[in-house]
């Protein structure tokens, strides 16, 4: 790959490069795996799978949540768990998620985890590792934007966040791409105090952009505090089951 050819590529004066060329380019530029996938999506838009949520006239709810996933959430009573789409809209959650994130989780201004993180002062104050988690969230949305460039709801969310958060606007302009699968964070809960948590993000299938988020304690003290928190929430909301926000 010559310098002259690369300059022509940057200027759009060559045809669409093949996968092997893109792989070589990603290696030369020392891109991460997520950034490499992003490069392929940008250079070869035909590699994107066609997604119904990008189509004009698609319903606001997008694709429905599978009943089996709602059953799975119902079977995780102790640890917070919830489902999102590529926009980080909350599609469904178990009661433990409301115990941790607040009774309004999944509704109103708390119906999107990125919006909560950047625009809700209480949510922001409770994230002791806010800057790292927030930057990861921007990278996650950027990856979703590459897969769904025609999604008007995602475009509206990004515009809202850029218009109301200087940090989001700056980090979005960095074009950082990150598809998280696991991590850790510290949160300060008004009832339970400081909690050290692990989180895992699981794909629900190759043909779906729905993601399952699970939150588990990182130490024994957090486990005890989380158990007490969930038990107290359960006693206040006896009989509450999984809350699906989109129809199954």
Automatic annotation (TrEMBL):
Residues 41-52 have a biased composition (Basic and acidic residues). Residues 41-63 are annotated as: Disordered. GO terms for molecular function: DNA binding. Coiled coil: none annotated. Residues 65-229 form the MmyB-like transcription regulator ligand binding domain. Pfam families: MLTR_LBD. The keyword Membrane does not apply. Transmembrane segments: none annotated. It comes from the Bacteria. Keywords: DNA-binding. Gene3D superfamilies: 3.30.450.180. This is DNA-binding protein.
């Amino acid at each position: 790959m010559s310098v002259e050819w690369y300059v022509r590529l940057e200027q759009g004066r060559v045809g669409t490069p093949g996968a092997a060329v893109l792989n070589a380019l990603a290696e030369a530029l020392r891109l991460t795996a997520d950034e490499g996938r992003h490069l392929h999506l940008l250079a070869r838009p035909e590699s994107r799978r066609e997604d119904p949520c990008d189509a004009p006239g698609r319903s606001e709810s997008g694709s429905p949540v599978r009943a089996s996933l709602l059953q799975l959430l119902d079977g995780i009573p102790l640890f917070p768990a919830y489902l999102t789409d590529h926009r980080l809209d909350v599609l469904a959650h178990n009661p433990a998620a409301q115990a941790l994130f607040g009774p309004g989780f999944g509704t109103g201004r708390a119906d999107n985890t990125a919006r909560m993180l950047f625009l809700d002062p209480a949510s922001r104050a409770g994230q002791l590792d806010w800057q790292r988690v927030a930057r990861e969230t921007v990278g996650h949305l950027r990856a979703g934007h590459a897969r769904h460039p025609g999604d008007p709801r995602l475009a509206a969310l990004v515009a809202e966040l850029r218009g109301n958060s200087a940090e989001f606007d700056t980090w979005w302009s960095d074009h950082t791409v990150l598809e998280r699968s696991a991590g850790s964070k510290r949160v300060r809960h008004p009832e339970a105090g400081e909690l050290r948590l692990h989180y895992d993000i699981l794909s629900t299938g190759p043909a779906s952009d729905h993601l399952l988020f699970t939150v588990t304690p990182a130490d024994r003290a957090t486990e005890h505090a989380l158990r007490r928190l969930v038990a107290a929430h359960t006693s206040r909301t006896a009989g509450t089951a999984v809350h699906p926000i989109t129809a199954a």
